[in-house]
Specification:
By secondary structure, this protein is mainly alpha-helical. It has helices at residues 2-23, 37-51, 55-82, 85-92, 100-109. The termini are far apart.
Amino acid sequence: MADAILPRLALACLRYLTSAFSFAATPGRTLLAGVPDAERERLLRAVAEIYSPDRVERRRLSKINDRRRKAARVKQDQSVLATTGIWQIVHLNHSSPPAPELAAQESNHR
């Protein structure tokens, strides 16, 4: 049950903090000057963990995002190419040449 509530609570806190920071006259860490040291450290540690989790996890997420971007780009490129006339002609009438081994066998049988 707590696992279901936690993302919504984090989102509410994030919205509150971003709205508070947007109304501040001086942006940055100076907003945290009046916050007790222990609380400021907890906040900064939590932000750091969200922004940059451990190195292995960060790399894994980065690779996943790179793959998704590349797949989306390839899909978009393929959809554009599929609509071009020459692409349709080539793929409709495409016949590949025989493999080199088969071509050599055919020439030996003649």
